[in-house]
Amino acid sequence: MPVTDTMSANERETSESELSLRLERTWRQPGGIWGWFSDTDHKAIGIRFIVTAFIFFLLGGVLAAIMRLQLSRPESSLVGPDLYNQLFTMHGSTMIFLFAVPMMFQGFGVYVVPMMCGARNIAFPRLNAFSYYIYLGGALLLWGGLLTNTGPDAGWFAYVPLSGPAYTPGHRTDIWAQMITYTEVSALGVAICIATTILRHRAPGMTLNRMPILLWEKLVISIAVIFAMPAVMVASSLLLLDRLVGTHFFNPAEGGDVLLYQHLFWFFGHPEVYIAILPAMGITSHLLSIFSRKPVFGYNAMVGATVAIGALGFMVWGHHMFVSGMNPYEGFAFSSLTTAIAVPSAVKVFNWLGTMYGGKMRLSTPMLFSIGFVSLFITGGLTGPLLAQPALDAYLHDTYFVVAHFHLIMAMAGLFAVFAATYFWFPKMFGRMMNERLGALHFWITLAGAYAIFVPMHLLGLAGSPRRYSELTGVQYLTTTAPLQRFITVAAIVTVGGQLVFLLNLFWSLFRGHKAARNPWECSTLEWTLSSPPPQVGFGDQNPVIAHGPYEYSVPGAEKDFVHQNASGNRGT
Amino acid sequence: MTLLTSGVSGRLLAQAMPLEPGRHLILHPGTPQSSHIEWLYWVIFWITFAVFLLMILGFTRAGARAHVDAIEPLPVTKSEEADRKATWAVGSAVAVTVITLFVVLVLSVVTGKRAGGLTSKNPITIQIIGHQWWWEIVYPNPQADQTVTTANEIHVPVGTPVVILTNSADVIHSFWAPSINGKRDLLPGYSSAFWFKVDEPGIYRGQCAEFCGLQHAHMGFSVIAEPVDQFQAWEQQQLKPAPDPTTPEATRGRAVFLTHACLMCHTIRGTDAGSRVGPDLTHLASRNMIAAETLPNSTGALAGWILDPQRIKPGVRMSPNPLAPDDLQALIAYLRSLQ
Hints:
The complex is a heterodimer. Chain A is mainly alpha-helical. Helices cover about 65% and strands about 0% of the residues of chain A. Chain A has helices at about 10-25, 30-35, 40-70, 80-115, 125-145, 170-200, 215-245, 260-290, 300-310, 330-355, 365-380, 385, 390-395, 400-430, 435-460, 480-510. In chain A, helix 8 (about 260-290) crosses helix 11. Chain A is globular. Chain B is of the alpha+beta class. Chain B has 3 domains: about 1-65 and about 80-115, no CATH class; about 125-230, Immunoglobulin-like; about 250-335, Immunoglobulin-like. Chain B has 9 helices and 12 strands. Chain B has helices at about 1-15, 30-65, 80-115, 230-240, 250-260, 260-265, 300-305, 310, 325-335, and strands at about 125-130, 135-140, 150, 155, 160-170, 175, 185, 190-195, 200-210, 220-225, 290, 295. In chain B, the strands form 3 sheets. A 5-stranded mixed beta sheet of chain B has the order 3-2-1-5-8. In chain B, strands 4-10-9-6-7 form a 5-stranded mixed beta sheet, covered by helices on one side. The longest helix of chain B has about 35 residues, at about 80-115.
């Protein structure tokens, strides 16, 4: 209904309420089971991604605990080599393909990005819903495989020729390769939705430099996904052709090339690391600013560092292949580019420090987990320059030192950002606050656990413990490291068990938590101008117009101490 | 904490660990190559440790200066001078980072060159071929009858450069003796070369470092470094074909070997057995260990291995051999005679 100036005030009011009614009708969720499945609302799909990924995170954690039990005693016969190989393959594949990216990029991205942009829904909502179901299909395929004794056992990287038809007959690797294709199609679909939402559906007035840092990170990652995922889909599809159709892409006996697979896999594999960690960095930058009540320090440098990491991430895959006998000059090129990534990473750390410096810190649970992220990022990151040197990597490659490095910086730091984001957006998602005391308890258990598990692993690596050994009696000189292995196992069991505190908090808060206000954390970004939980229709007929930057905290003279991005008119002064 | 503990306890660990025979830590290098690697490790370790301390200091100060209890809005003084100061601080921190990383890179390249370049002439060449799950060791020679072929135990003369040529017969393996040099992948379809020189006699343990299937954890080897004359004596002995059995039992054992599945996979030079699927057994008795450093080379271990290798290394490419007890005894007597 056109609203014209000639209408009386009364008429205009009627037409406005009618407009919002009509909007609500249009955007109402269809009822029934069919309605549930055909729902295309980004909030529902985002929460489905988050819940599904979290379930697979718990399952992956249980696999890790079983592996730790196996390694706690020399000559342990808890699981045989066959099951052990399935366990570590499933643990890696689950955590990377079913948890890290679906949770950080797809889950929180799909839920938060449209609201932060001020859009009613994500761009291409049907593609978005399709992405969820194809991800779910891949996940169920993989876990159905494990439960029917067809669990993949060639490692999460599935190097040929070990994963080829000659050395792993049966359908274990077929399942793995098909799962890769499904989950990567899902990531690609969401990347297109998110990039389009950010580029096309921002509220009027939200110029690029008024975007929250999180949107920048999501944009960079979406572009990285669009370039990285096809490489691994090519690798997994060629592998499937070799296995099922009888082609010889990777069969050296027929002129195939085993290194081709490694190049394709790591051309995806290394950007993948940043695809998993950049959203974590974005959430951390965002939360550190909110809970220090200060603007993000060095916004432009932060954005520049994000773009630099996204771009450099595509030029360093060779550092996974230093020991494959590559030309020393090639090794040098990859080594210097890898070392160069330390620069934008350092810029980020310095800027986080700058953000917190002199701030008015509110140590709520999301803030605790964000500080934990920074701590783990520094500790895990500092071993990066060690591993980037080919001469040193030749010693440390494929040892527990590498396991410790990437678990601290990617797995644990990423997990801390996931928890920070969960505690932070839970009130928005479900309209109730999570318990702060249980949250703090959960934080301290997980932080102590992360360090207790992974710091000793550096020592195992230095002592020469190779990864992926189903038991450790084969190497006599490592028998003296058995007490260390036992300690790690105890720490791992306690940490995995400690997540029960989180589950307890989650379910208790879901039903008994305090009702959340519209904006419990006093944030300036748009999603907090909606009620908690947000109405189905999102912003409805109110079209937010952006007048302020995303991080206007501690503004002198403001009503609280911050200014909403869409606050009209004056800034308070 | 990470780096502090990995450095300090790494050293403690190195002292506490009984490292005989052989020495197996980066902290106990046995060759010039691993000494270079160790040196580079400690240089970068101390640099990153210093960075770590500075970061701890920075965040501690940020925490100490935070107004956690302030109820009033922050007294933010948005003066241009404070902004300039902070930007300058972060800018110089980034500049220091860039310079430090550049120094690390230069050191790394120099070290890589020193560890990778062959500085001495007249090396001996050894070809290592990875198999699931054992190592075929060949000392190539243009004359076929002067070529030594053995398995899992690499004899090298002390003080002589050794060039290792790598290859794989099936999947990717990685050759790694920690106190000798860095690791090198054995790729099917590719051959690559690297070298080392062991300065002190001893037995240096190594193992496969690239996931290669079920028995990845039981794919060991050892580098046995010995004085040049001992090495030459060993080489001369290895060149000989298997001696003819001297006792009736061993003679019967040879017959058992040649009439059962054994000869389908193994070679014993001087007999009709000539397949190269499994390890060459011509001088089996001269080795310390069997089954890729999994079992001692003793009568009992051999018997257990021959009867049911699947029980010891599930998935191994050798099938069970249900031999009659006297056949088995004869076979072992023969194998034990293959000095």
